[in-house]
Amino acid sequence: MAVDFKKLREAKKHQAVIDPLEIFQRLPKSARIKDLYGSQVEVLQAWFASRNKQDHVLKLHTGGGKTLVGLLIAQSTLNETSEPVLFICPNKQLVAQTLDKASEYSIPAVPYEKPFPEEFLNGKSVMVTTYAALFNGKSRFGVRGGDVLGLGCVVVDDAHVGSGILRDQFTIRVQREGSDDAEDLYAAVTGGFRQAFKDAGRLGTFDDVVSGGDYSVLEVPYWSWQEKLDEIQALLRDNAAGRYELEWSFLRDNLRYCHCFITKEGVAVTPVFSLVDLLPSFSECKRRVFMSATIPDDSDIIRAFDATSESLQRPLTSKSVAGISERMILVPELMELKINDVAGTIKKLAQNASKSRHSTVILVPSGYAAKTWQDVAEYPDTPGLVEAKLSELVSGKTHGPVVLANRYDGIDLPDEACRLLILAGLPRAVGEYETYRANSFVGATSINRAIAQKIEQGMGRAARGPGDYCVVLVTGSDLVAWLGKDANLRFLTTSTHAQLEMGVEVSKSISQRGEFVETMNRCLNREKEWVKYHAETLADLTLKTVVDIDAIESATTERHALQLWRDSYHEKAIAKLTKRADAPTTDKLERGWLLQFAAKIALDWGKKDLTNELQQRAFADNRNLLRPQSGIAKVEPVLPGPQADAIVKRIGAFRFKRGYIAEFDSTVSFLVPTSSADQFECALSDLGSILGFEASRPEKSLGNGPDVLWVISRKVGLIIEAKSRKNKANALTKSQHGQLLVAENWFKENYPKLSGIRVSVHPSVTATKKSVPSNTKALTLAKLNELVTESRKLIVSLCESGHPDRELKTYCEELLRKSNLTPDKLVEHYLVDFEILETD
User: Fold this and answer.
1) CATH topology of domain 5-162+279-313
2) What is the pTM of this model?
3) Which of 218, 258, 163 has the alpha carbon at shortest distance from 435?
4) What is the pLDDT of residue 568?
5) Helix (H) or strand (E) run with residue 472 in it
6) Would you state the CATH architecture of domain 326-539?
7) Which of 743, 644, 648, 641 is closest to 694 using CA atoms?
8) Which residue would you say has higher pLDDT here, 214 or 664?
């Protein structure tokens, strides 16, 4: 009779092992499994020593073995407490990978099932599932007020990307399509707010959005939201069945703590932050472990999961380089390439790499961008097709090229699954709230942090651990411009920053396509000198996880203020927000954001005067926010300084001067008739700033004044109305010219010491008799194109001059003297008189 070893083991009495390192040593492992990295050992020891704190944030490099560390922490808790332990991932693909990893290391793990498996409930196996299984309005783990399953530990994988996923679980969406009465419901919800947008001077934009002609995200003014709350609550309640039942369970008693956004596709109602306290299994869990990448700012873990600030300020991490993959990061637009069609060249490289069995993946920010690659790459446009195509890459059935839209996280392409990764275009905000926040923080630190996270996530898809390698091509004028800025590079991890610097250094001598290919092949073909250079350069780095304390404090303030508001401590919530807003380290855009939050709480408290005062302050600091209902501060005229100083100052912000050329190209690409009015006006304003003038958009930020204002000297301002989208055959009308005359009156009132020149950006120089465009100038699209061309010539000359920064101003002054870009010459050369049609 065979020996029953299982029976002998069970009969043997011994205390359960709870040290995760010892657990690893005792696990049965295959011959190919090696020991833990030093970095894994460090974080496991640190966690075990302080394991009874509720929250820990764990940071390891991509490929550094976070999943195994999380599973060992889960097993340690199971052994110590015998309570259920949950390991949650952003998506099903990562769930499958985690279950495979657990099986590989003989760690007992089960998937989410109905009913819950006994081995999970009895604390014998960790359950691995998605965020959505835990965070939903009818969660089987229990919601507040019902039966709740107590958990000994929750391990949150990829917590740094969880904010958007979690927000979706707490967001009601009234979709415009999907059922017979969807359009009627959309109209009923949006129609109630039309007057609010009329009062705010945004009725035109509102009508364009709800008619389906504009892609803007409109926030319903919070005062109108509060006023209509009962009506909206009844409307949403009556239509929840079959549409948003799970989300309604969360928000039905919390609508006052929500934003409401209107888009052409639907209406979104979403809380200020995810209301995770409605799920006690998570919020009251004894141990919560948030696993993250080594990025400087993880403050969204506070906003999304309500993690403690201490856990963010003292993350568990390591200085070890273990797990950092080899990446050759090249930026063609920053090279000395003598190639006119960079995009076409990169497409050809992608095709050739795939033919050589170097699997190629292209990551782009949107479906629209993905379609521009369909001439050379397959585009799977549904989750099922994406999963199938990724499986083919991993198995080697295809080598691509494959283009993926907005898939910067949640996918793994190790080893031969991806050797060439192309990151094309700047990652964008996704979802209504993210888009709204991005628009509120244009160019601000917090948004650049978020962009850096997506770039890091994207670059981390291909090379997944030690021994893995890939070439990363970074392309697209907006992305290259972002990377060119010195201030943005500090948001990248130390390793990515170093690899980017390496790639630029390696590429300095590249000027031909053949040299470009040869450089890539040095990595792909495993040239020893490249491999050695990469390893030595990384080894010279002192890798240290930088913690952005300021970002953590801001996130903590916002989270605490929301809870105080919900607990009816309005005064304390407002005090906390205003104190943080007035802190010396808080920039103006963020100060405005915090003050608007405080104003919203003041209104709910019934303090209308305080509400208006706070909103006035908020709008004064951040013109992207809601205009106050009354008392907009009078415009303080800002006059330009020396033109060359302003031009050179903008260039000085860029580490790689070619990055500024890319930013220029990205900006002026919207100065075409096919752009939306908002895109065109924004680009026109930016062009004025690039040329060293004081440029603004008074109509957008103040509700009156011209579309665009260029103060080109201390004596003259250009009062600009943009009619770029008009048919070329149409003349300037009396109504259009009347808008210019109204804008001129605003200018005289606010800039009384300056003379103004009325300018209409118009497809042609013709005007009707009735318009009477006396002393009004036309900036035709042809002349605008000429202006853009000359401006680019100036920028390229400055960026490629080789002059040190201290000499660049003098060189710029010399170039301006020879150009038509100085204030006087610009007016004389580019602005022309209208020609009156004989008949209207």
Assistant:
1) Rossmann fold (3.40.50)
2) 0.81
3) 218
4) 96
5) strand 469-475
6) 3-Layer(aba) Sandwich (3.40)
7) 641
8) 664
